[in-house]
Design goal:
The chain is mainly β and 311 residues long. Helix content is 3%, strand content 57%. A hairpin with a 2-residue loop joins strand 23 and strand 24. It is elongated.
């Protein structure tokens, strides 16, 4: 059962060709949402979605709908037709589904909605939207987040995270599990990830400070910076083009070391590491660390330097 409170309606009139189009917004609240939910699923369009867990006593959704209309009354009627629905999943009562429903007749009128969701306890999250940023804080088990043309920020998840965007950056911190982040034309920033990391972007840099498993990071036209206390058998793969690579890793890492670049130099800080050099020149280094093993480091770029230090 959901209770809906309307706080405000605003309309703006703008010339569109030879006529007048009214842009209307309406704030709303969905409160008194019954049930205890372990998972929240959100499907939205053209809007921002924020989910924060653990700061309230009862689940609450605040937001703002928006749409155009040929007149003020038409825009208000369009707002009425644009629904935000929150109800338990028919097959899984522990899952709350939140959906922005837009009739096809409104698709050409720039419809959308922003959602601010606050849950009383950590829960799993599955959020998809378009043309809007996503923010999630204090989730558990798994967070799967997808948008386009916008940024994703996720923090303090007691589980794994999958984040996908385009034309927007991704930022993750405090992930107690694996992290998969994929975007284009945006940077990736991650810290304090206890599991493995799979990071991919184009035309953006990658910064990772803290990982507890394998690391795979690749980009183009961007640099890569890594500092992590990975286990001795971790596999580290860093690839870019037109960018530098810098990594700081534990000296206990066992396996092959492969550093390769063009039009620049490679450097490895191997003073405190038992190492067997296989091949070395200005832009290429092949070696075996700590007698070999299942782990190792591969770093490749062009038009950029590579520096890997073992501490």
């Amino acid at each position: 059962m959901a209770r809906k409170l309307t706080f405000a309606v605003m309309a703006l009139c703008a010339l569109a060709g030879t006529g007048c189009t009214t842009y209307a917004t309406r704030r709303f609240t969905l409160a008194n949402l019954e049930g205890s939910y372990e998972r929240i699923v959100v499907h939205s369009t053209n809007g921002r979605v924020s989910l924060t867990c653990g700061e309230v006593q009862e689940l609450r959704i605040d937001g703002e709908k928006r749409v155009n209309g040929a007149s003020f009354s038409a825009a208000e009627a369009n707002l009425d037709a644009l629904e935000v629905v929150a109800k338990p999943d028919e097959r899984d009562p522990a899952t709350l589904r939140i959906e922005v429903r837009i009739p096809e007749t409104l698709n050409h009128l720039s419809p959308g909605a922003d959602l601010v969701i606050k849950a009383p306890a950590p829960c799993a999250a599955e959020i998809s939207t378009s043309n809007g940023p996503i923010h999630v804080a204090n989730a558990k088990e798994q967070a799967v987040l997808e948008t386009s043309n916008a940024r994703i920020e996720v923090e303090q998840v007691r589980g794994s995270v999958v984040a996908r965007s385009s034309n927007g950056g991704i930022q993750a911190a405090g992930i107690n599990g694996d992290l998969t982040a994929r975007t284009s034309n945006g940077s990736i920033r991650a810290s304090a990830v206890q599991g493995a990391c799979r990071l991919h972007t184009t035309n953006g840099s990658i910064r990772l400070y803290g990982a507890g498993g394998n690391v795979q990071a690749d980009t183009s036209n961007g640099s890569i910076h890594l500092k992590a206390d990975v286990p001795a058998d971790a596999q580290i793969t860093l690839r870019t083009s037109n960018g530098a690579i810098e990594a700081s890793l534990p000296r206990q890492l066992k396996g092959e070391l492969r550093l390769s670049t063009s039009n620049a130099a490679v450097h490895a800080g191997l003073l405190h590491v038992p190492v067997e050099i296989k091949y070395q020149d200005e832009g290429d280094l092949r070696a075996v660390l700590n007698g070999g093993g299942p782990g190792g480091v591969t770093a490749e770029t062009s038009n950029g330097s590579i520096r890997v230090d073992f501490r």
